[in-house]
Amino acid sequence: DPETNELLSEGVVASNTMTFLVAGHDSTSTAITMLMYHVASHPEVEQRVFNEVSRVVGDQPLTWDMLGKLVYCTQVVKENLRLFPPAPHFIKVSPPERETTLGKYRIPAGSALLISTFALHYNPSVYEDPHAFKPERWEGEEAAKRSPYAWLPFSYGKRACIGMQLSLIEQRVALVELVRTYYLRVDPSTNIRISNPLFMSAQGIQLRFIPRSTSAPPPALTAACLDVQLTGTDSAPLGNFEQLRGKTLVVLFGSNMTTCEGFATRLVARGSELGLTCSKAPLNALCSTPPVLPHRDEGLVLVVTSTYNGLPPENAKTFADWLSTDDAATALKDVAFSVFGAGNRQW
């Protein structure tokens, strides 16, 4: 614990190790199995994945920056998890100290609620043609207007799956590496059987992996490029940097794993190159020995922070409470600021 310096007990370490082994292996391996099956069953989807991978990654090793640009690949992964969530249900417990309501239903205090992910993901009032594999349902207005709670393969809230991001990364990496190396096809001997001992498991799937380097496309493969190529200039005009010289830039960060602190350091370095007077500090610093924040005519405050299932990181918790005080209203009056949030849309 960063505040008390208390160490984890052996029991906690053992329990978490078991959680990682059980929850992080079967669930993701099953998801990847069904991901490959769905891609192999839809050559037009495979072709579009290959087009995007070729454009973004090419023959280079896959990097973190590239992964974030694989928009269609992410849609394919999400659609697979909608159709086949490895955890078909999860349990939530209502507040133990009071009863609550859920729509027209009264829920007694401390009730265990079993939520069916399957029923939610196949609800025709939420997903048109719910049994069809349609990655495009995760793009544009259709995805934007849908509730974030309509897709819950990892549950949600404070008790959401701790391995969500790792699993999504693993699935996208597997998709990229397999599709750019092989054509995927379903073997006629496939006879799918679904079991559910703890996580859902698909048995009887037989796939053919045909090397792209030595084989012509299988007859069912659609050769036409399905992606819309972006055109236009590489970047927008960035304005006159001379007007920034002599201004003040204060970068405030919230970070548990140092990622956002790293962003803050890069912003300070870049700002200094452009002639600004720069400094950085954790968000909690505003509540104790605050840096001098520039008036909007004198400069800018940039906030770079992560969230963890909607909660602030350790070095921003005090700041989050402080924001609602009169001191905060005074300190932030006439301050121009911008916020870069590093997190997931489900958060």
Output the keywords.
347 residues; Rossmann fold; 2 domains; 11 helices; 12 strands; 33% helix; 17% strand; Cyt_P450; iron ion binding
What average pLDDT do the residues reach? Answer: 84
Quaternary state of this entry equals single chain
The total domain count is 2
Low-confidence stretches: 220-238
Write down the overall geometry. Answer: globular
CATH topology of the largest domain: Cytochrome p450
Rounded to the nearest angstrom, the distance between the terminal CA atoms is 23 Å
CATH class of the largest domain, please?
Mainly Alpha
Q: What CATH architecture label of the largest domain applies?
A: Orthogonal Bundle
Q: Main sheet?
A: 4 strands, parallel
Largest sheet strand order: 10-9-11-12
Helical content band: 25-40%
Q: How many helical stretches? A: 11
CATH superfamily of the largest domain: Cytochrome P450
Keywords: Heme, Iron, Metal-binding, Monooxygenase, Oxidoreductase
Family: Belongs to the cytochrome P450 family.
Protein name: Flavodoxin-like domain-containing protein
GO molecular function, one term: oxidoreductase activity, acting on paired donors, with incorporation or reduction of molecular oxygen
